[in-house]
């Protein structure tokens, strides 16, 4: 017999006892709160982590003294109580103290069968969890006549000892086995995955058993008061008569709690107890400021609350619960805002596969763009467009996508690719379009010729077969899955309205088309921070005119082509201004190199020669002449504006005429005109002089005045370094961190994917700098540019509009650097609004 160590500490949980979450664990703290709320919690003793650690290393706690706390020898249970409920812990052991004598007593009060069943279960769990005997042998013994004798015999055979009869010895052994289990390697690894520190300790609670087995109404169950998927008020849970612990959750025979068609309920069987449970729920919600799941036992018509845990919840439910608590005055709005994780919001903006429904997975890949959609399989962009024309939803499946698939992607409900990663073409475009997307699904096989997809389990799907793509989980599913609609409901809007009141940095959206702008408005962006106008020229009809402009042989020919583009651009801007209703709109002048508008293969060039009615040789020669060795660093951005001023002149005229038209329609706007890829002050001076001249011309012609702002996009290191002099001619600077990252690293945006994974894995870069702003390098240029610009012009407006704009880390950086706003893709606006509020609170 080991020596009892008198210094090992334990404490009865009373309203005033010293119970510390870090020492005694969350469960002890929670039980103390329930006791303070006057809920009927059975007597409970808490063991701090220091005691449990000492037990694990061989010390023996005074279990007899502990049992004396409980008075007249009730049975007890032991449960784990780590500092954080997510860290798990060893299995709960019930009915400690049961022995031959107690069994005989129970047989008198509860009947032979009930007494046998309890004793058999205790011997089984003690044998498996404490004596560590082979579970199979013990689990095979089913309760019933003779079972008790059999488990006791098996126990003696396996251990050479009779089953221990001393309750203190039983308790002491249970505590020791639970303390040791916590120290085991696999338990350690499991909890570390869940974020537990290596030194995380385990508290334990020893609690008097409320018997759910016996006379009158006796049983046990769990109850919660909200739906775990939607967060809406709804009583759910299970109750099972003559049961203990979590039995009710394990059997189909359990009663439901509320009346419905599934059968008799606790509400019908014991309405007053049910009402009492509802009252407990309301008290917990009000005082613990949380939706709790309550574990209860009924013993001969008396309720006992054994435990309460935070209701497990989806993101959607979490948001709803936080808003409901704040609306009811239980928590302040800022706490509701802080309770929702910004990055989690993105899954609420889209349809989701209902987690309660079945899931027949046929392929797995990278979850590249969130949301879910069902539709017919198509294998080409043409088929996708044809499907859209018929009004049928389709899922586009490709090995990988290329620019010519964009229209196919537009026509699809979701996109699945065999290859690619988070920054592949399909992933980037799908995120921009808000389409669910799974990439790198290499466990499926595609036969593009036969147009069939072979799933990892060998099932074959043909074009036209219906599947569901879950871009949030990175899975393709057979058939139509049950869906939850986007959660852009009243709670969502309320939470973000509160967030807006707390944040101190503006959030705009990058929007190129009216549909992007409409999305930006829906997500309540405070304006457009970047409209990439060239995206307006890729549409079929305009592409032809654009190509005519590129191939013009004389200024007159070019002017004629531009004159045809002018009304189209003006229309684009009128539409944008209409949608944005007076909110600021920042329009970037033409940026890409011209060869991007030309076909690259022979067939395409032949088609172009036909369309332009020019000899193929001339078209080929001119196309060759426009080709660049390094197009990202060539004739693009303001360089085009300087050398071919007519394009910018046309765009400026279109912007100003649209401004006048919008004012006349009752939506006045002050447009912001932005010059891309600047590296020298002189570039800005030249473009500014011309744009001012166009403005004067439009004013004179229309006899109407209007205002506008002119600013510069800082995308080259030199522009950041020379921001002081550039700001002399700019009302605002917007940092284009995509190009700025590219040029700071000397690393092509389009080629970085080839080695970025290796670089990150090898720890050369901490993260992909095209995803997470490189605070040390690119960030320093941002700070330098901001400081030098503001030194020239105190009221200079500063912003960021690269892909980084929506990341919480970049928002943090920009906020601290005193930027006025960040601009990000429309679908990231809600996350950015919430993240900005978290940073300000
Ligand atoms: C940038 O370079 O950061 C930017 C926003 O422009 P684009 O991505 O169009 O080059
Ligand atoms: Mg750029």
TrEMBL record:
Residue ranges of domain PEP-utilising enzyme mobile in the record: 393-474
Protein family: Belongs to the PEP-utilizing enzyme family.
EC number per UniProt: 2.7.9.1
Cofactor(s) listed in the protein's UniProt record: Mg(2+)
Keyword field: Kinase, Magnesium, Metal-binding, Transferase
Domain (PEP-utilising enzyme C-terminal): residue spans on this chain: 491-839
Keyword Transferase: yes
Name of protein: Pyruvate, phosphate dikinase
Function: Catalyzes the reversible phosphorylation of pyruvate and phosphate.
């Amino acid at each position: 017999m080991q020596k009892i160590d008198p210094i090992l500490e334990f404490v009865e949980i009373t309203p005033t006892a010293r119970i510390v979450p870090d020492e005694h664990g969350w469960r002890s703290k929670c039980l103390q709160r329930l006791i303070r709320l006057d809920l009927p919690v059975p007597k409970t003793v808490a063991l701090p982590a220091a005691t449990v650690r000492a037990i694990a290393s061989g010390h023996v706690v005074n279990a007899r003294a502990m049992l004396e706390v409980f008075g007249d020898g009730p049975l007890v249970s032991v449960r784990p109580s780590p500092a954080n409920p997510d860290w798990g812990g060893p299995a709960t052991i019930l009915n400690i103290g049961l022995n031959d004598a107690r069994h005989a007593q129970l047989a008198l009060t509860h009947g032979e069968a009930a007494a046998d069943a309890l004793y058999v279960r205790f011997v089984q769990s003690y044998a498996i969890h404490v004596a560590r005997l082979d579970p199979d042998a013990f689990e095979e013994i089913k309760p019933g006549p003779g079972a008790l004798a059999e488990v006791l015999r098996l126990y003696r055979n396996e251990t050479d000892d009779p089953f221990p009869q001393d309750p203190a010895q039983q308790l002491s052994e249970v505590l020791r086995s639970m303390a040791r289990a916590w120290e085991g390697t696999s338990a350690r690894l499991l909890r570390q995955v869940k974020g537990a520190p290596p030194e995380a300790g385990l508290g334990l609670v020893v609690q008097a058993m409320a018997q759910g087995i016996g006379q009158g109404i006796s049983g046990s169950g769990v109850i919660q008061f909200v739906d775990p998927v939607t967060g809406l008020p709804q009583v759910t849970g299970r109750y099972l008569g003559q049961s203990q612990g979590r039995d009710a959750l394990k059997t189909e025979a359990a009663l439901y709690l509320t009346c419905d068609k599934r059968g008799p309920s606790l509400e019908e069987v014991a309405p007053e107890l049910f009402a009492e449970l509802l009252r407990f729920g309301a008290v917990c919600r009000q005082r613990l400021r949380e939706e709790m799941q309550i574990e209860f036992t009924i013993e001969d018509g008396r309720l006992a609350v054994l435990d309460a845990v935070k209701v497990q919840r989806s993101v959607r439910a979490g948001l709803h619960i936080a808003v409901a608590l704040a609306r009811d005055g239980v928590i302040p709005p800022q706490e509701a805002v802080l309770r929702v994780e910004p990055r989690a919001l993105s899954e609420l903006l889209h349809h989701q596969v209902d987690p309660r429904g079945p899931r027949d997975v046929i392929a797995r890949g990278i979850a590249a763009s969130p949301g879910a959609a069902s539709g017919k399989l198509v294998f080409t962009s043409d088929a996708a467009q044809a499907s859209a024309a018929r009004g049928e939803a389709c899922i586009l499946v490709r090995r990988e996508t290329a620019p010519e698939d964009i229209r196919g992607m537009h026509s699809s409900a979701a996109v699945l690719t065999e290859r690619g990663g988070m920054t592949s073409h399909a992933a980037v475009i799908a995120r921009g379009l808000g389409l669910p997307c799974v990439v790198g699904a290499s466990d499926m096989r595609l036969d593009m010729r036969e147009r069939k997809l072979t799933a990892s389990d060998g099932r074959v799907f043909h074009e036209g077969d219906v599947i569901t793509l879950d871009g949030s989980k990175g899975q393709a599913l057979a058939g139509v899955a049950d869906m939850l609609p986007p959660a852009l409901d009243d709670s969502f809007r309320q939470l973000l309205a509160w967030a807006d009141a707390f944040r101190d940095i503006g959030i705009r959206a990058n929007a190129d088309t009216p549909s992007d702008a409409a999305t930006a408005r829906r997500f309540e962006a405070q304006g457009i921070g970047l409209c990439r106008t060239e995206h307006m020229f890729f549409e079929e009809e305009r592409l032809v005119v654009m190509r005519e402009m590129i191939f013009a042989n004389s200024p007159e020919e070019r002017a004629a082509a531009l004159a045809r583009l002018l009304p189209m651009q003006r229309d684009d801007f009128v539409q944008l201004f209409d949608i944005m209703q007076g909110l600021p709109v920042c329009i970037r002048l033409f940026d890409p190199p011209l060869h991007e508008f030309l076909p690259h293969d022979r067939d395409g060039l032949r088609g172009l020669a036909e369309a332009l009615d020019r000899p193929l040789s001339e078209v080929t020669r001119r196309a060759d002449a426009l080709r660049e060795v390094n197009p990202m660093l060539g004739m693009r951005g303001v360089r085009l504006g300087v050398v071919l001023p007519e394009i910018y002149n046309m765009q400026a005229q279109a912007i100003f005429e649209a401004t006048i038209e919008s004012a006349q329609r009752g939506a006045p706007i002050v447009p912001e005109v932005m010059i891309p890829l600047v590296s020298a002050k002189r570039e800005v001076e030249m473009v500014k002089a011309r744009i001012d001249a166009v403005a004067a011309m439009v004013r004179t012609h229309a006899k109407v005045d209007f205002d506008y702002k002119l600013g510069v996009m800082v995308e080259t290191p030199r522009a950041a370094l020379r921001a002081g002099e550039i700001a002399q001619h700019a009302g605002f600077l917007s940092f284009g961190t995509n190009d700025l990252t590219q040029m700071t690293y000397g690393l092509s945006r389009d080629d970085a994917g080839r080695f970025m994974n290796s670089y990150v894995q090898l720890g050369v870069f901490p993260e992909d700098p095209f995803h997470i702003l490189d605070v040390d390098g690119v960030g320093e240029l941002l700070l330098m540019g901001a400081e030098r610009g503001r030194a020239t012009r105190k009221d200079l407006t500063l912003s960021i509009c690269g892909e980084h704009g929506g990341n919480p880390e970049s928002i943090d950086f920009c906020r601290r650097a005193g930027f006025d706003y960040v601009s990000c893709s429309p679908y990231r606006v809600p996350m950015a609004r919430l993240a900005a509020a978290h940073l300000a609170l």
